[in-house]
Amino acid sequence: MAQTTTDKKISANNHFAEEWVGRIYTTLCVLVLVTTIVAMVYFVASRGLSTFFKNDVNVLDLLTGLKWSPEGEPPLFGALPFIFGSFSTSMLAALIAAPLSFCAAVFMIEITPRFGRKYLQPVIELLAGIPSVVYGFIGLSVIVPFFRDVFPGQGVGIAAGALVLSIMILPTMTTVATDALASLPSGLKEGSYALGATRWQTIYRVVLPTTLPSLMTGVVLGLARAFGEALAVQMVIGNAPFIPRSLFESASTLTSAITLSMGNTVSGSAHNNALWSLALILMVMTFVFVFIVRWLEKRSKL
Q1: Element (H or E) spanning 76, and its range?
Q2: Residue 53 — pLDDT band, cuts 50, 70, 90?
Q3: Tens of pLDDT along 164-179?
Q4: Strand partners, 69
Q5: Pairing state of beta strands 76-77 and 68-69?
Q6: Domain segments of the chain as ranges
Q7: How many CB atoms lie within 10 A of CB 212?
Q8: DSSP-derived secondary structure for 188-206
Q9: To which CATH superfamily is domain 76-301 assigned?
């Protein structure tokens, strides 16, 4: 009897120790994560804001200026061409990929669920694991020559960058859309069928409207991925610091401007600080995309 009581006390002490070890480990992980995020935000913000406080560059001149000439006399830091390039390629990529991802999700869940979930979905998800440099190289070898032969120009530009990005963000959008359709309560579809609706009527009048907030979450996530992509776009967009007059003229993005110039600048110089300002714009837009995703998730739970 005494032995049993002792064993229970030892077991209770072990559980107590394991619980505290788990709490301490979890707390440390959270603290490391929060500290890392705060440190990154502070570092990028402090460097990016130095352009305005240390180098006396006007915020409006940076955001709306059309000429980027850091080494000129006087130096000009107009980032509007890069901002335009990032938004145009990302938006066009989302417009191209969104219908394809919705149709693929409907096909896998509503049309041929057994074949789609078993074979097609893993194939689409494999696209997410392909390195971005491979997408860029394929775009440079296939898409750019095709645009050069069919449309006026050299083939590089907004259209080539948007097409490459649309393929890159397609797995993200399709996965989110597939999960949203798969989680839809079967009672909604059964009720629609009971009222005499056909499969297609059920899809576009019941399934898609009900899951629309979740579908838009996938679009925003894909848009965020496209907005922050650097290497693949850099290889096919032409990297010209001007606002193009057509989709088939060279342009540049925020990420391209940073990756091409950061290694050629001196830390603390006006040019280097201006590049950190571009990074700050990217970080702010990432936060905006995160807030939009959170808002859409709340909408989907209402």
Answers
A1: strand 76-77
A2: confident
A3: 999 999 988 998 888 8
A4: 76
A5: antiparallel
A6: 2-54, 76-301
A7: 15
A8: HHHHHHHTT--HHHHIIII
A9: MetI-like (1.10.3720.10)
